[in-house]
From TrEMBL:
Domain DUF7847 intervals: 64-319
Stated name of the protein: DUF7847 domain-containing protein
Listed transmembrane segments: 58-78, 98-123, 153-183, 195-218, 249-270, 290-311
Pfam families linked to this entry: DUF7847
InterPro entries given in the database record: DUF7847 (IPR057169)
UniProt KW keywords: Membrane, Transmembrane, Transmembrane helix
């Protein structure tokens, strides 16, 4: 279902000042949402639809891993002889020898970066797609979520890329200043005059551009939800997000920041046991009686580590987007009286997708 605009509807009057509680067909009540409703709704969505969310995460990141590994294998196969000559040469290789390697593996790096961005956009699109059923209390399947997400992934990717470019400005400035500072310290300040202006420019530029970048990031944070719920394109979704955030910037900023912190902590807790296993893995292989047993321990440790990394990445990407998508629903309920349309949709059969 697409969450389109709805006319105002006052709802049933109360009896003697008493108002009945709002309907709750799914994970949240169909009324203005409080912090507890939003966080509880996000957790309830994960609890009810974890198969779809984890399935999307494993599929997206798994396909990304296969694509990147294939690109690396093709690049290595094409330049294996040249790479061996460069690495085994006793003399410093010339630019003519190194240039094809730099260009090829640079292209692989750019391709890998793009593939990861597409995978993240697919996860960002899957969260509102899951919430379309979770809010209405309808059952969901991986196939339904996959089709909804794939149809909107390019719009979500465009919105995410534009927002990322805005946020990247202060990050690049502070990174430039940090690198210049490290170079100055390593060279024992012999180039302090040469890099001093760069350090000052980087830090002052980050201070100047940081607050506007955060402000714009919050204004555009509802764009993925708008792209999926309303079928908006990238630019239209950014404009729609800006409209919905207007007048409630600080609340959306605070709840979104809390969601990212909670996701980071949960991801760390999930990955911690596997990190400990990887840390003690080498000592176990030393004590293994046979090489086969040692290899089994290493492979098992790597497999569990990869699973933990995928689960942690899924939590880091999915939980904040579920919270932000519920903020989108909340803003529509508060500003556009979306609740009656949701209640009507919840009473009917699930829409075919």
């Amino acid at each position: 279902m697409s969450y389109g605009s709805t006319p105002p509807y006052p709802g049933p009057p109360g009896w003697g000042g008493w108002m009945p509680p709002p309907p709750k067909p799914g994970v949240v009540p169909l009324a203005p949402l409080r912090l507890g409703d939003i966080l509880g709704g996000a957790f309830a969505t994960i609890g009810r639809h974890w198969k779809q969310l984890l399935g999307m995460a494993f599929t997206a990141y798994g396909l990304a891993l296969v694509a990147i590994a294939s690109a690396i294998a093709i690049a290595y196969t094409a330049h294996a002889d040249r790479l061996d000559r460069v690495l085994d040469s006793d003399v410093a290789p010339g630019w003519d020898d190194v240039a094809p390697l730099v260009y090829t593996f640079g292209a692989v790096y750019v391709f890998g970066l793009f593939v990861v961005l597409v995978a993240n956009a697919l996860i960002y699109a899957s969260c509102p797609a899951v919430l379309q059923d979770a809010v209405l209390g309808h059952p969901s399947t991986f196939g339904r979520v996959w089709r909804r997400s794939v149809r909107r992934v390019w719009s979500v990717l465009g919105a995410v890329l534009i927002t990322a470019l805005i946020v990247a400005v202060p990050l690049l400035l502070i990174g430039t200043a940090f690198v210049a500072l490290v170079v100055t310290l390593i060279t024992l300040s012999s180039h302090a005059g040469e890099f001093g202006w760069l350090i000052l420019f980087g830090f002052l530029g980050a201070v100047a551009t940081g607050p506007p970048a955060v402000w714009l990031w919050v204004k555009f944070c509802l764009a993925p939800a708008a792209a999926v719920f309303e079928g908006q394109g990238a630019v239209a979704a950014l404009t729609r997000s800006s409209q919905l955030v207007r007048g409630d910037w600080w609340r959306i900023f605070g709840i979104s920041l809390l969601a990212y912190i909670m996701a980071a902590v949960a991801s760390y807790v999930v990955q911690l046991p596997f990190s400990l296993l990887n840390a003690i893995g080498p000592s176990l292989t030393d004590d293994a009686s046979t090489s086969g047993a040692a290899l089994t321990i290493v492979i098992t440790s790597l497999a569990f580590g990869l699973v933990a990394l995928l689960v942690g990445q899924a939590l880091t990407a999915a939980f904040p987007q579920l919270v932000v998508s519920l903020l989108y629903v909340d803003r529509r309920i508060r500003g556009e009286n979306l609740a009656p349309a949701l209640a009507e949709a919840a009473a009917g059969p699930p829409a075919a997708h």
